[in-house]
């Protein structure tokens, strides 16, 4: 992640045992509690969101996927009509 000025505050509450563990973890890495918690939170967020942004395929699955992308549209007129239709939330 790019280095940027920290200008947003996050306040959290926890119990003493969790705070102690976090403090010991930060100390073990010779970093501040804030840096330790931010790094841990970012890593967790990336893990949680990974399956929504990335997927892994075998060679055969990838070829089938690419073939499907390269195949001609089965019904171009239907796709055109779909794109021309306004979504209910876009109606004024």
Task: Please provide a written account of the structure.
By secondary structure, the chain is mainly alpha-helical. The chain has one domain (16-87). It has four helices and no strands. The chain is elongated and about 60 Å long. The two termini are 40 Å apart.
Short description:
The chain has one domain (16-87). Helices cover 60% and strands 0% of the residues.
Any descriptors?
92 residues, mainly alpha, 60% helix
Cα-based radius of gyration, to the nearest Å: 24 Å
From the N-terminal CA to the C-terminal CA, the straight-line distance is 40 Å
Low-confidence stretches: none
Structure summary, number of beta strands: 0
Which of globular, elongated, flat, extended, rod-shaped describes the shape?
elongated
Largest sheet: none
Q: How many individual helices?
A: 4
- Tell me, rounded to a whole number, the average pLDDT: 90
Supply the number of structural domains: 1
Protein topology:
Layout: H1 16-28, H2 33-53, H3 59-70, H4 76-84
Helix pairs in contact: 1-2
């Amino acid at each position: 992640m790019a280095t940027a000025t920290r200008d947003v505050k996050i306040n959290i509450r926890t119990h003493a045992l969790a705070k102690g563990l976090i403090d010991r973890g930060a100390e073990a890495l010779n970093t501040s509690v804030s840096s330790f918690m931010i790094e841990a939170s970012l890593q967790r967020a990336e893990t949680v969101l990974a399956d929504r942004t990335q997927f892994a395929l075998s060679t055969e699955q990838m070829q089938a996927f690419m073939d499907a992308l390269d195949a001609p549209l089965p019904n171009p007129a239907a796709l055109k009509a779909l794109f021309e239709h306004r979504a209910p939330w876009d109606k004024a």
